[in-house]
TrEMBL record:
UniProt GO molecular function: precorrin-4 C11-methyltransferase activity
GO BP terms in the entry: cobalamin biosynthetic process; methylation
Protein name: Precorrin-4 C11-methyltransferase
Residue ranges of domain CobE/GbiG C-terminal in the record: 406-520
EC number, as in UniProt: 2.1.1.133
Residue span(s) of domain Tetrapyrrole methylase: 7-213
Matching Pfam families: CbiG_C, CbiG_N, TP_methylase
Start and end residues of each Cobalamin synthesis G N-terminal domain: 290-368
Keywords linked to the UniProt accession: Methyltransferase, S-adenosyl-L-methionine, Transferase
UniProt xrefs under CDD domains: Precorrin-4_C11-MT
Keyword field contains Transferase: yes
PANTHER family reported for this sequence: COBALT-FACTOR III C(17)-METHYLTRANSFERASE-RELATED (PTHR47036)
Enzyme class: transferase
Amino acid sequence: MVAKMAKVYIVGAGPGDPGLITVKGADLLRRADLVVYAGSLVNPDLLKLCKKEAQLVNSHGKKLSELVDLMAQAALEGKLVVRLASGDPSLYGSLKEMKEELNKRKVEIEVIPGVSSLFAGAAALKEEFTVPEGPQSLVITRLPGRTPVRSQEALERFAATGASIAVFLSADRVDEIKQRALKAGLPGDTPVAVVYRASWPEEKIIWNDLKNLSQPEGIKGSAIVYILPGAKLEGKRSFLYGEKPEVGRKSFEDAFSILEVTKSTSVVESLISSFPKAQVLESGSLRKRVRRAWNIKNPIVFVGPVGVAVRMVSPLLKDKFSDPPVLCLDIAGSFVVVVTGGHHGGNRLARRIAKALGAVPVITTGTETLGVISLEEIVEERELEIVGGNTKRFNAMSIAREPIYTVGMGWRRDISQKDLKLALKSLKGYVDLEKVAVFATASIKKKDAVEKLLPLIPQDAALVIVPEKVLSGYSGISPSRAKDKLGLPGVAESAALAVLPQGEIVVPKKVVGNVTFAVARWCGE
């Protein structure tokens, strides 16, 4: 039988408010025989949870080796030992060194996470780090001091990405933070907040924009500087609860970023005059300006050669549903070339700019040039949502004027992927899956559709979600219990028809176990 190792519990105390310690952390404090706590950082009210006979040791001013010896000896004697660390033990603490030293003494550790001051500060600000159409990343960093920071982790590099940033252990160097962020090309109106002792009674919050940021009086130590590009984005929806995101279409309200490759004052002035919401990005190198514009997610209009635009954006391209449209306008204002994202707002914006400037829109997407409909246009017009797959098959069939097939599907709650596989196997008896361009279902099925159905459909086909308000406008030819349960005429047939402008049901609703499906066809006439 393997002997059980002695153990020390490293418990995150939370940011300051004693009510923010975890249930497990509080339970360990109540049972602990020895508690070693960071006296200058941990709220003393937490120690009131400890039993009267517990030994309480303030670690302030003591050497790590002294503390480790004390905890190891107690743990080896069979006592319950807690090292009470501020915030969460994984951030800017001594967890690694403590683990190594305790392990040398045949003592293991168990870490109980805590609420970091990082999140207590965000709660105090009532802000989030990830914002729709804004930052999708959070960087936790610090300025170099006694602990060096590698050059590749310099604040300037992170700031250039447009991510949200939390700067720890640097609150007495706010001016330096400001200069580094501006040097990286962050706009001067970027919101910045300094939060001092988040969740404590003496908590302080100071807001400013980056260009006017200055060192707050009396704030040092326990403060975090937050750089929050997303805080100025008003009216953006998170879509976490099923509202429709802008996938398959972009609604930019004439807001786009202008990047001058070649100086052309008259063209830029004409753009700004015609589109007041457009923004000229001027500070920093062209490459830095491109990255800033990319992170804003609005369309990008280069003024200069197409070749430069292509070279600048090619390393940033990921997929057409999330990349911003890229356009290029020559310095004479004669041609507006759509470089990327034509079906996702680029073509529409090119036409608007061309009309305003008296230019010629240069559009090369096949469906547009041949005057046939694209799936992206249908999605935009009918307020549907493409959640996966590819529009390639639909658009190729539309260009070739071949019959286009869509499959509408519905299923009961808690459907298994096995059930969906069986339904697709049965579907093959009615239609060649290689001819199906779209699989569609209702928005209440979205989670299952993305997680379970998407991996099963052909790669060239698209998975489309149809909102209930759109479904209700279509009536299938088969009776459905969905009318009674959801107030809808039926999911399978209605979803299939919702995707096709003038389609017809060619395979009425079929029931396979817990799944229903129907097939619609459109011949493009």
